[in-house]
Write a structure and sequence with these properties.
Its EC number is 2.5.1.18, 5.2.1.2. The protein has 210 residues and is α+β, with helices and mostly antiparallel strands. The protein contains 9 helices and 4 strands; from the N terminus they run βαβαββααααααα. The chain has 2 domains: 79 residues, Glutaredoxin, CATH 3.40.30; 106 residues, Glutathione S-transferase Yfyf (Class Pi), Chain A, domain 2 (Up-down Bundle). The longest helix is centred in the middle third of the chain and has 23 residues.
Amino acid sequence: PVLYSYFRSSCSWRVRIALALKGISYDLVPVNLIKDGGQQFSAEFKALNPMQQVPALKIDGITLSQSLAIINYLEETHPNPRLLPQDPKKRAQVRMIADHIVSGIQPLQNLSVLKQMGDKKMEWAQNCITSGFQALEQILQHTAGRYCVGDEVSMADLCLVPQAANAERFKVDMGPYPTICRINKALLELEAFKISHPSRQPDTPAELRA
């Protein structure tokens, strides 16, 4: 497999965690979203992913984009360890939390949106994350065990950790979200989350390396 990724992209990070958890080795091709006006806008990359976004994964003779579509494919082709619970209710909760983050929070503070916000980008990002986290904290109080849903790592956790890192980067006060903080801390102790971390990627700038 070949993963087209950017070290700081939360969507790419989700996929890197899934690949690490499932023990799938891959080649990484960095796509710098800032350099050269954004390498994702090159004709070469557009041919690979018409949405001009990372991640993209070449695997088994196909090219997939959209992090949850990629993670679902990995789940179906490499079922162990599983990222979706067997219980239908828990499975629905995992998908709900994942969707809450990938649809309801992350796109609103994405690079393409922030570029349009000018001087207000920090305030905008903080507002989007805060309103999303207020809801997420409430949801997790009902679903969480050690992790987002019960005591098994799931697709929801793969979405939570990169979003918590975004919150930190945009200086969001995490005080009101003890459940999010507790789960995030537990997940960051796991090897798959460590090796996939933005501070440990081949394209991480020297000053941001762990």
